[in-house]
Design goal:
mainly alpha; 5 helices; Thioesterase domain-containing protein; membrane; transmembrane
């Protein structure tokens, strides 16, 4: 009734072949679409798992960094604070002892900015310890010059920002070697 071919009778072999190819093409196209949907779904699942894995890795890394800071604080707490010593020579020794404890922590720091800040703080403390040694021998006064960041702000503030939160107490303690 609604055909474009001859009215009535069997369709000829050519039309039958064309219909078969058309059905085969549709089937092949549908198979390609189904495969593409499956591959897309699997890649989406893999991406979600990758995000979870990276979040787990970040959480684990943060926990290790926090533990490293707590270990640093524990090492510092076992040492005599420089301000509790009798004279300049004793204070210089106490500062060098604290610097040695911090150097153990520096091996675990992965952030280059934070590592550079910690080294600047240690260098300033080492210079102060040398000045204290000179003060004990020649009575020339020694002063601690806290390091500054590139913008002129105290480096301690930037170092607290760059370092894990549990390091804040250790940073403040190290920034005031007279206490």
């Amino acid at each position: 009734m609604f055909s474009f071919g001859e009215a009535g009778g069997e369709p000829d072999e050519r039309q039958r072949r064309r219909r078969r190819w058309w059905v085969a093409g549709i089937s092949l196209g549908a198979a390609v679409v189904v495969i593409a949907l499956c591959v897309g779904g699997l890649s989406l699942i893999d991406a979600v798992n990758g995000v979870r894995d990276s979040a787990d890795d970040a959480r684990e890394t943060r926990a290790l960094r926090d533990q490293s800071c707590l270990d640093l604080e524990s090492r510092l707490n076992r040492l005599t604070p420089p301000g509790a010593t009798a004279g300049p020579a004793g204070r210089a020794v106490a500062i060098r002892d604290e610097n040695s404890a911090v150097r153990l922590y520096l091996g675990e720091v992965r952030d280059d900015r934070a590592l550079d800040g910690w080294r600047q703080l240690l260098d300033a403390r080492a210079v102060y310890a040398d000045a204290l040694d000179r003060q004990s021998k020649a009575r020339t006064p020694a002063f601690f010059a806290a390091p500054k960041s590139d913008d002129g702000a105290p480096l301690v503030e930037a170092l607290e920002e760059w370092s894990p939160d549990p390091c804040a107490g250790s940073i403040r303690r190290l920034a005031a070697p007279d206490l």
